[in-house]
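Need residues for this backbone.
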């Protein structure tokens, strides 16, 4: 029943006990009474015994009940959030064990809540405010600003962190992130000592950090802070026996010029950071209106890219690989073009990086694979037995079902595997895992050839190169650009060509633009060329008209 407490129940119990004693005393007393005086005395004794019993029972039971009622009220208050008030003293006096248990319970709940709050507000790896906490604090600082002047947001993305995670494991990666957070704290303290105010640091996600400076005198200060961050993160990190060199791409946005709200500042700083990455990494960029326009254009191009795939707005052009001794094309590289309805013909350099960042490169790669397999089957039926090379990106090769999709395209179009060649960049070839290498070896056994593209732009491990299941290596244009005018360039190119040929692989030189370059390369020992000097990429019809003479297929080694 609501409103009935233990105290009221204890009072009722005491009344009942007193009444019972009164009745018993009265009954026992009547046996001794023979007149009215005796009956009166018995009644007085009964009333006195009942009253004393009631008082004793009520005091004993009601005191305990009152303590229990107090404990109930205190637990109800705790359920509504009051974990700080002390446990009432009467509970400790009457029920000491219950009082100790309640104090211990409240202390443990307070500790757990503090831990939950820390998990909700702070990143457990670095101890920095997490995204939600950082944004909340910056929004409060912006709302409380009263003075005029600048504030700045620095968006920091680590360069090379993924390689640490992949090679050393996530435990080492977490340790490295904690070290990065420590160096950012040192930068923040140094700037505070220099009068820039208390800087707020946060970890947004992964290897992305932010630093907010609430007060700055001018834009030059923002540049100085960015350089301090770069200098701090460029120093070598020592993780036990491992020495790691990192860098950072930094985007800077200033309040209120580049945004008067936190979402606007984050967007501007993010745009500037991506520009820094595209400019070569390990640099800082300030947000500008031009960058905003570029970002808007990239976003529009990304939307159009998905629509273009649905509308089949893409086409392939083919650039021949010429065997200089016979002048015949032995193969062609398939190059994608985008017939944009408003931008005319868009070259791959303008949309392939966007496709890789957005993930659309997988769908785009599937389109290229299907179209190349279809073309190879058609050429084979026409007696044109030339290989067609396809460029494969790291995003595509990272898909678990890439090889299954490739084989499906080959089977669906009944394309001869011997007419297909996969081009993989040098850096990607050096990082391929054993499972991927096994899949590539299986393709080679079926006749597909494998080529390393852009060789000379990465850092090849020579023993690793010898073990790779590769048939051909394409020398990057950067190695041959100055070969006709520079003795050093000739020496380097000659050494690279000799190395590749010594490993039993064919050499294809791409980017040949002059007769002088080609003559020098012939002296070095090159026989296969690709470049504007020989032929520009062209549509299938033009290609077949010029280079459709059949060329013999050379069997290749298996690994």
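Answer:
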């Amino acid at each position: 029943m609501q409103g009935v407490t233990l105290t009221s129940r204890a009072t009722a119990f005491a009344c009942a006990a007193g009444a019972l004693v009164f009745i018993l005393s009265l009954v026992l007393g009547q046996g001794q009474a023979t007149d009215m005086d005796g009956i009166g005395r018995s009644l007085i004794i009964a009333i006195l015994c009942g009253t004393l019993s009631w008082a004793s029972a009520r005091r004993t039971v009601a005191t305990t009940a009152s303590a229990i009622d107090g404990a109930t009220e205190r637990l109800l208050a705790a359920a509504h959030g009051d974990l700080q008030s002390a446990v009432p003293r009467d509970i400790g006096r009457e029920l000491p064990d219950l009082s100790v248990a309640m104090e211990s319970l409240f202390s443990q709940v307070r500790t757990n809540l503090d831990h939950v709050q820390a998990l909700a507000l702070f990143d457990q790896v670095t101890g920095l405010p997490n995204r939600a906490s950082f944004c909340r604090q910056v929004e409060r600082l912006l709302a409380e600003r009263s003075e005029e002047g600048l504030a700045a947001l620095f968006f920091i993305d680590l360069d090379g962190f993924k390689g640490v995670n992949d090679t050393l494991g996530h435990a080492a990666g977490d340790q490295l992130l904690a070290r990065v957070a420590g160096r950012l704290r040192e930068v923040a303290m140094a700037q505070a000592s220099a009068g820039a105010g208390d800087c707020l640091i946060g970890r947004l996600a992964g290897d992305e950090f932010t630093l907010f400076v609430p007060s700055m005198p001018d834009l030059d200060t923002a540049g100085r802070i960015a350089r301090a961050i770069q200098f701090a993160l460029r120093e070598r990190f020592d993780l036990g026996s491992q020495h790691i060199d990192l860098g950072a791409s930094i985007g800077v946005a200033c309040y209120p010029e580049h945004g008067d709200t936190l979402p606007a500042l984050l967007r501007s700083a993010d745009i500037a950071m991506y520009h820094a990455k595209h400019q070569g990494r390990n640099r800082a960029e300030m947000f500008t209106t031009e960058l905003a326009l570029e970002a808007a254009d990239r976003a529009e191009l990304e939307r159009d890219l998905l629509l273009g795939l649905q509308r089949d707005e893409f086409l392939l052009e083919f650039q021949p690989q010429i065997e200089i001794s016979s002048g015949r094309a032995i193969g062609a590289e398939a190059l994608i073009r985008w017939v944009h309805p408003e931008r005319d013909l868009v070259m791959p350099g303008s949309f392939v990086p966007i496709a890789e960042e957005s993930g659309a490169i997988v769908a785009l790669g599937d389109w290229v694979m299907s179209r190349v397999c279809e073309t190879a089957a058609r050429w084979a039926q026409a007696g044109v037995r030339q290989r067609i090379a396809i460029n494969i990106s790291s995003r595509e090769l990272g898909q678990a079902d890439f090889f299954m999709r490739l084989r499906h395209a080959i089977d669906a179009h009944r394309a001869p595997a011997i007419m297909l060649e996969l081009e993989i960049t040098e850096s990607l070839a050096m990082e391929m895992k054993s499972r991927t290498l096994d899949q590539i070896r299986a393709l080679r056994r079926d006749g597909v050839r494998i080529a390393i593209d852009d060789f000379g732009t990465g850092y090849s491990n020579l023993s690793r190169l010898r073990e790779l299941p590769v048939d051909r290596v394409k020398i990057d244009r950067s190695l041959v650009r100055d070969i006709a005018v520079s003795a050093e360039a000739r020496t380097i190119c000659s050494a690279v060509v000799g190395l590749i040929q010594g490993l039993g692989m064919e050499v294809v030189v791409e980017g040949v633009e002059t007769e002088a370059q080609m003559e020098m390369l012939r002296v070095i020992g090159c026989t296969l060329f690709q470049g504007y000097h020989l032929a520009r990429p062209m549509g299938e019809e033009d290609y077949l008209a010029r280079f459709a003479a059949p060329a013999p297929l050379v069997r290749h080694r298996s690994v």
